[in-house]
């Protein structure tokens, strides 16, 4: 399990995935060395990773939830094959180990989902059933993190970690709380430095959200692809990966964050935060009540995803609970009290093969998460 500093670090990274360790250390009341050491340990032992992800609406993407049933002897290989695809995320084994769920990201100018459904999947004789559900609207998920990640810091600490906007005056950010007298300052870096080097951290400027937003360029997609692999990569590493200057990287990174085209997610096994039981909930809701029910569910601590979908069911949620008993309590009392939910199917998740970012040798999630 994680201690207070670990949880505070994870919460801080959700607020700003590229926050300098020195700034996080100030807020947590510890040293930069301690924060950096904890980050390295969590990366090695808990599969912690910060990943930069495109906002689907701004990136011209449509998301689909693919649901596959396969023979027990082939389901593991099939899940790994799906996880290796560049257009997938959240590949999960569920329902007794014979069912796979995966999110497919289809660009508006490609045929990714039709190709997968009409060509790639039919070639697998081991697949016994398949369905595809377009995610029509996401009420919870994406830039909005699961609340289980966000319970370590006070409101004041969270405010101190919010990246200042370019138009804010220098004094607009509240000062970090004074650290304990025993804290070591020798290794501290200025709060305006980047995660892994002493280069300045780019801060998103204020933008007019009503103004037309230009489409993402090929260079933008290249930058986001690099951030998918490591959301805390230095400007130098990003410049090398994209073939542009560090100044260009810093400027485009700030612009993408400011206009909502890019956000940062934190991957870590939920079991380490006490969520040992996970399930996908497929619900049928009266269409006239769908928005109200989905908005209500988006406020539930137990859920990490709430999305309206196509298909025989029209609302999908991902539940993270402390135990099977807590999941039962949630289903019978909280969901059971919503009369507009006409039907509910619960698919327990046994293993997460792939989370939001690309599959890497270091990616590892424990069974049940």
TrEMBL record:
The UniProt entry, under Pfam families, shows:
AsnC_trans_reg, HTH_AsnC-type
**Region labeled Disordered — which residues?**
155-219
The keyword Transcription belongs to this UniProt entry's keyword annotation:
yes
The HTH asnC-type domain is annotated at: 2-62, 216-276
Record flagged with keyword Transcription:
yes
UniProt xrefs under InterPro entries? AsnC-type_HTH_dom, Dimeric_a/b-barrel, Tscrpt_reg_AsnC-like, Tscrpt_reg_AsnC/Lrp_C, Tscrpt_reg_HTH_AsnC-type_CS, WH-like_DNA-bd_sf, WH_DNA-bd_sf
Q: In which domain of life is the source organism classified? A: Bacteria
Q: Which UniProt keywords apply?
A: DNA-binding, Transcription, Transcription regulation
Which PROSITE patterns does this entry report, sorted A to Z? HTH_ASNC_1 (PS00519), HTH_ASNC_2 (PS50956)
Name of this chain's protein: AsnC family transcriptional regulator
Organism of this sequence:
Nonomuraea guangzhouensis
């Amino acid at each position: 399990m994680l201690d207070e500093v670990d949880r505070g670090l994870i919460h801080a990274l959700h607020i700003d995935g590229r926050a300098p360790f020195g700034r996080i250390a100030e807020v947590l009341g510890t040293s930069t060395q301690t924060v950096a050491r904890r980050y390295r340990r969590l990366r090695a032992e808990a599969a912690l990773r910060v990943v930069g992800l495109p906002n689907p609406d701004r990136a011209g993407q449509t998301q689909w939830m693919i649901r596959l049933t396969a023979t027990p002897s082939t389901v593991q290989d099939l899940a790994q094959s799906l996880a290796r695809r560049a257009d997938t995320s959240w590949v999960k084994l569920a329902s007794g180990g014979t069912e796979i769920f995966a999110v497919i990201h289809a660009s508006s100018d490609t045929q990714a989902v039709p190709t997968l459904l009409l060509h790639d999947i039919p070639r697998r004789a081991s697949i016994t059933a398949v369905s595809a559900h377009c995610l029509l609207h996401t009420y919870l998920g994406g830039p909005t993190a699961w609340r289980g990640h966000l319970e370590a810091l006070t409101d004041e600490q969270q405010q101190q970690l919010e990246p200042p906007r370019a138009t804010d005056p220098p004094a607009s950010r509240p000062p970090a709380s004074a650290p304990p007298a025993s804290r070591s300052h020798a290794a501290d870096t200025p709060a305006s430095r980047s995660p892994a080097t002493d280069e300045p951290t780019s801060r998103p400027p204020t933008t007019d959200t009503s103004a037309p937003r230009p489409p993402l360029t090929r260079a933008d997609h290249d930058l986001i692809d690099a951030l998918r692999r490591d959301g805390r990569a230095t400007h130098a590493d990003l410049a090398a990966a994209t073939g542009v200057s560090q100044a260009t990287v810093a400027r485009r990174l700030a612009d993408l964050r400011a206009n909502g085209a890019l956000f940062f997610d934190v991957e870590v096994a939920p079991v380490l935060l006490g969520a040992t039981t996970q399930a996908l909930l497929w619900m049928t809701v009266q269409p006239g009540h769908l928005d109200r029910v989905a908005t209500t569910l988006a406020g539930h601590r137990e859920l990490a995803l709430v999305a309206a979908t196509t298909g025989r069911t029209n609302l999908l949620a991902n539940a993270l609970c402390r135990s099977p008993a807590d999941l039962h309590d949630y289903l019978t009392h909280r969901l059971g009290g919503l009369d507009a939910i006409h039907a509910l199917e619960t698919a327990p998740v046994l293993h997460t093969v792939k989370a939001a970012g690309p599959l890497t040798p270091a990616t590892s999630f424990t069974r049940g998460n």
